[in-house]
Structure formats: C-alpha cells, structure tokens
Amino acid sequence: MRPIYDKTPLEHLLAELIRIPSINPPGDETPCAELLEEFLSDCPQLEISTQHLGENRKNLIAVLRGTGEKKALLFNGHTDVVPIGERSGWTHDPFGAEVVDGVMYGRGTGDMKAGLLALAAAVKLLANRDEPLKGDIVFLATAGEEVDGCGAKAFVREWDMTQFSGTVIAEPTGSVVVSAERGALWVKIHSIGVTAHGSVPHTGVNAIQYLIETLEKIRKGFNPQSVHPTLGKTTMNLGVFHGGMEPNIVPDNAWAVLDFRTVPGYARAELLELVNGAIAEVTAEHPDAKLSIELINDRPQVATDENDPLIQAAVEVNGTLGRSTAIEGKVACTDGSILNTVCDTPMLIYGPGEASQAHVYDEYVRLEDFHNSVNFFYELAEKLLG
Length: 386
Ligand SMILES: [Zn+2]
What we know:
- This protein is an alpha/beta fold.
- It is built from nine helices and 16 strands.
- The mean pLDDT is 96.
- It binds zinc ion (ZN).
C-alpha cells in the first residue's frame, strides 16, 4: 500500500538539511544528525541512539522493532557532503535549498540528503502501520562517508552485521535499482633516490626516472579481461605524480598514486601482483632503485546476485511505481563497501538524484523523485518484511 503523508513539511525539512553545511572535511555532521533525530523522536516506536565519532561528528541510529520472524533490514545514508568547489561555478546558493520548477538545488541534495530523508520518512511511516513488520528495520545515518567512512566503520565495530538480510543505501541512482558497486584500490608508490648536481647526474640516483619506469611497466601489464555485467571492467587512473625540486638537482624523492576501480576477477590480489611485479623488475634492472608501496584506500567491490530477493523485490516495487525495471551497477564507492566487510550482506543502492549530479556545481534533486523514494523504501520494506 502506498503511504499517505503531507509532502510540504517533508520538503521543508529537506531544505533545512541542505542549509546545514556538513562539509567533509572536517564533517560537522552533528547538526544534521540532530535534525533527523528531532524528526524521528516524536515516534515512540523507534529506539534512537547515537555513536559519538569526535568533535561535532556522530552517527544516528533508529531501530523499528519487528516481530523477529524475519531477519532485519539496514537502511543507510550519509549526512556529510563534499566541498562546494569554486563558488563562482554555482548559479544557485549551494546552501540555499532554492526550489525552481519542482527542483531543489544545493550541495547534498542528490548526494544524498534527499535519499537519507526519504529513508527516515519511510521508517516513520512504517512505524505508524497498524501491523508490525516481521523483521526489524535499522535506520543508520552515517558521518564521514565522503572521506574515510569513519561512521560506517564505527557501526560495524559495534553492531552485529549478521542480523541483516540486506542493506539498502540511498545514494543517488536516478531511481534505478543498483545491485553492485566497484571496489577502489589506491596505491601510492614511493621512489627514493640520491641527490647530485644536475650537471653530473650519473653521481646521483634519479627517483623520478625509476618511478616512471615502474609506472610504464604497470601500464603495459595492466590487462583487465573480466567484464562484470553491470560494472564493466576494472579501470586504472594515474591521478597524482610528484617529484623533484629544481632542474639542476637530481631528484631524491618522487611518488605517484594509482587509482584502480575494481570488478570481480581483476581486483586487489591481481593488481597488487602487477604493481609488486613491476617494482621487482625495476629493482632487478637497477639495484640502486628504492621503491615501496602504500595502500591509501582499500575498498572491496560489492556485487549482489541479481536473483537475490532484495534485488528482485526492488525491481518489482520500482515497476509498480512506474519506474525502470533495469538493474545497473555503480562505478563509485559507497558505505556499502565498509558495511559489507564483516559478512557478504546483499546490497541494494537506490535513491533520488542522478549519480552524475554528485559532487558537481548546481547539484539538484527533483522533488518528485524524492517523494518517489519515500514510497519506494516504504513499499520495499512491506514487500520484504510485511
Ligand atoms: Zn554519497
């Protein structure tokens, strides 16, 4: 059954959330968490708690108890947003929550305060049903998703992840069912050399030269063959390169960071073998090369079977709402890669706002899509736990 609720106050609350600049870094998510807590706290059926994560940072958790006949569902979204970038790039106030022709603009509209509030609103509507659900719903608003996932990490440390039959993450997908996300592996490669005068380079050890040789071997050896049906192939981006001081000094220090986005079959193990193999070859050819690696981001890919009941239920519900019945993949990471580290809980990503709108100027969400998501989460929970 489609829930009945008053749309206007919910849109006002969304605007209030957008007006809180919970930019990460540093985060400052507490005012957002408190506003959501206030919204949920007039519902006595919900057990509300928080996890303190540091100065002005916390997770908000609200549990709606079911009868316990079925496993619980986890509803997740994050309260932090990325910086706005150049203010001149925006034609709308990034924290103004202006609405033009049914579209709300502002940092965090799509990524992902609309999705987060849609989850919270659905939980509140579910709490007011006459019949209790057959399983618990745990609503989790995390801090820190945009940088290090500190909120999700704190949650998996304290909560039993085996109690969940599925995780629903309301990141923006353009209201399309998403069943998988790529992993991320950021490999920093350090090269240490020995300085010398630039006029006698053979008396030094050129850190840049050996780093370039290593990166070239990695580029030539990079060979992603596995193709995931929705995630495509593993990708590699040489995103950062630093080295050297002056033209007339042999550089004794250089480093680069490779950003791999992984799919099953060509992921962490294969990529580390590729990088370490390249380093071993360069070191064998040049005994004075000193190369080492550091992993600065290490997130597994998450890929839920398309026949899993969570994904199938999501497709059905989306169809009844007149939306797409396609199943897609997501190229960027979410908190799902952290929530999924304890056990392989099925994961669904679904939310209002276009994925392409995340982190851009004039980020927006269509209010119609926001309300569609409230209905979607409500009906999904009824289908799975009703
Ligand atoms: Zn996000």
